[in-house]
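tool_call: predict_structure(chain=1)
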Amino acid sequence: MKAIVVGAGLSSAVACTILKKKGYEVEVFETRPHIAGNCYDSSIQGIKVHNYGPHAFHTNESWVWDFANKFDSFNDFRLKVKGRLEDGRIINLPYNLQTELEVGSWDSERIVKEIFIPYSEKHWGQAWETLPKSFTSRLPTKREDFSPDYHLDKYQGVPKSGYTSWISNMFEGCKVHLGCKPSDWKNRRCDLLIYTGSIDGYYDYHLGLLNYRSLRFTFKEGQKTDTIQLNECNNSSPYTRTIDHAHWYNQNVSKSILSREISTDFSLEDESSGRYYPEPHKSQELYNKYKSIKTDTIFLGRLGTYKYLDMDDCIKQVFSILKQNKIIEK
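tool_result:
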C-alpha cells in the first residue's frame, strides 16, 4: 500500500508514524526547504532558536506525553510569560495573585482593558469591539495562584535535541521530498492521500481564499534577559512579543538570540507571508463549503482543518481522524 502525505509538519509526522506501522510505504512532499513546519528550530551562534515563534509542549494527557517521548526525551521546561503595560511596568501573565502584588488588585474590567485589549487588537489587526464574542468572552481574567508558569498542564517540556530532530525521528523510514512545488505530489499514484496544507489551496482557491493572520519575525543578538517571553500589552510598541531563546535549554550565556514578532494579514502574493492563525470569524462559512466537498483525501492539522491547534491537539487530532477513517482501530 502506498500513502502520499502532503506537508512535513507535526501533524504529517504523527500520521506517518501510524501509517508505517500499518504497513504503508509513505512518501512526503513539503514545499519548504526543511521539515517540522512551524515547529522548525535551528541553531544561531550556539543558541537553539524557534524560527516560527515559541513552541512549548504541554498536555494533561499521559498517552500524548508518552507518544511524544517515544521520539526524543523532553526536558522540564515550563513557559513563563511577562507583559509590558502602557506605563512600562512589567507584570506576570496571566494575571494571578503574583500580578496582584505587582500592580494591585484589579477587577475583570481593568484586566481586560490593560492587558487583553491592546495585545488582542495588535494580534488580530482589528478593534476589540469588532472581535467575535467567541474570542473575547472566553479569556481567563484572573488565576487564583502564585505560579509563574503560563501553563498548568501536568506534562510540560521541549525535546532535548530540539523540535526538528524530534519530528525528523517520526519521519524515519519515509521518503521525504523538500523544496517541492505545490503540485509535485499530484502526479504520484497512491492508495491513501493525507493533506496538511491549507484546504483552499488543495482546491486551487476556486471558492475563495481563507483568512489567516500572519507573523513577521526579526532576530538579533543581544544580552540574555531574565524573561523567556515578553508580551507587549501596550499601544507604544508595534511588536506583539519578544522571545529570548537562550531559555529553552537554560543556557548559561551572556549573549542570546532575541526574536520579535509583528502580526500582519496573510497575503497569498507575498512569499514571506505565512499562515499562522486561522480567522474563523471571517471565513468559517467558506471553510464549511470546502469541507463539504466529497473527496477521499484526509485533511489534518491547522491548515487542513482550519482550526487553531496546540501541539498536543495536533497529536490527538491525527489519531482521532485516522480512527474515524478506519486507518486505525478505535
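agent: The mean pLDDT is 96. Proceeding to next step.
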